[in-house]
Each structure stands twice: as structure tokens, then as C-alpha cells.
Amino acid sequence: MLKNIFQKLSRLYVEIPTEALGNSQKATALLLTIIVISLIMLIVLSISLLIIVEFKLVMGIEDSVSAYYAAETGVEIGLYRLYQQSPTPSLPYGPETNSIVDTKYTLNIFESGENVKVESSGMVKESKVTRKLEVIQPKP
Q1: What pLDDT digit, counting tens, does each position of 60-72 carry?
Q2: Which of 103, 105, 107 is nearest to 95 (CA)?
Q3: CA distances (Å), 114 to each of 88, 125, 134, 138, 139, in order?
Q4: Is 93 helix (H, G, I), strand (E, B) or coil?
Q5: Element containing residue 128 per DSSP (H, E)
Q6: Residue 62 and residue 126: Cα distance in Å, rounded?
Q7: Which residue has the higher pLDDT, 112 or 15?
Q8: To the nearest 10°, the Cα dihedral for 81, 85, 86, 89?
Q9: What is the pLDDT of residues 2-14, one digit of tens each?
Q10: Where are the domains of the chain?
Q11: CA 52, 54, 59, 64 torsion: positive or negative?
Q12: 81, 98, 99, 129 - which has most CB atoms within 10 Å?
């Protein structure tokens, strides 16, 4: 069955000797080939650029999430520091900076009227996230 199909296809294929083509036809074929290859290269480069941009975007999101959790860690440590010094914390406190691998947080605690503010900034590479918390002091 396949053999018959290949025989029929081979009969359809007709070799055109290059001598039969004129110079203008050769030039047209060459120009058409160059245009097709250029279009294929343009498509491949465009797709590659999109992939690179998406990859950078995903890496930026990952860094932002890490920075968020670093800032959240700083807030939790700030609350712990306030709890340790309860009922009369010595304020302002900070800045306290701590880093683990490429993740860093900076903690500040200061008074704001009758309340206390805990502010922590988490940083990973170019990403920075700041978390602020206002602690309401119970009145005696």
C-alpha cells in the first residue's frame, strides 16, 4: 500500500534542470528564500524575547514574595521585642537589621501618640516590601 503511494508521489515529482531556469527566476527564488528565512528568524526571536520577559517577571514575583515574608518576620520580631519589654518598652527601638542569605529585613519601633508603631522592610535583590503595624496600648 505504502509502496504504491510512494510510486505515485515519485511520478508527480518532476526535476527541473537548473539550466531551464532563467537568471530572473533564480534571483526570485533566492529572494523568496531569504524573505521566508528572515520571517522565520523574526518569529523565533520574538518568541524568545517573550519567554525572557516572562521569566524575569516570574523571578521578580518570587523575590517580592520573599521580601514580603522577610518584612513579616521583622514585624513578628518587633512584636516579640515589645512583649519582652512589657509593660514599659524603651522606645524608639531600632533600626535592627538582619539578613539570611540574600534576604534582609530592617525593623524600627517607635511611639505614635498613645500607640506604638512597628515598621519592617524586607528586601531581596531589587524587591522591597514594607509592613507597618500599629499596636494599641491598653490604658491602665
Answers
A1: 888 888 899 999 9
A2: 107
A3: 12, 36, 10, 9, 9
A4: strand
A5: strand 127-135
A6: 11
A7: 112
A8: -100
A9: 667 666 656 655 5
A10: 43-135
A11: positive
A12: 129
Cα 119 to Cα 134: distance, rounded to the nearest angstrom = 9
Residue 71 CB-density burial (10 A; 0-12 exposed, 13-18 middle, 19+ buried): buried
Euclidean distance between CA atoms 105 and 128, whole angstroms? 9
pLDDT at 122: 92
Q: How many CA atoms lie within 13 A of 40 on its CB side?
A: 6
- Written as one letter, the residue type at 81 is R
Q: How far apart are CA 63 and CA 126, in angstroms?
A: 8
CATH class of the domain comprising 43-135: alpha beta
Q: Which phi and psi angles does 111 have, rounded to 5°?
A: -80, 145
Q: Tell me: pLDDT of 19 over 70.
A: no
Identify the residue whose cell numbers are 512597628: 118
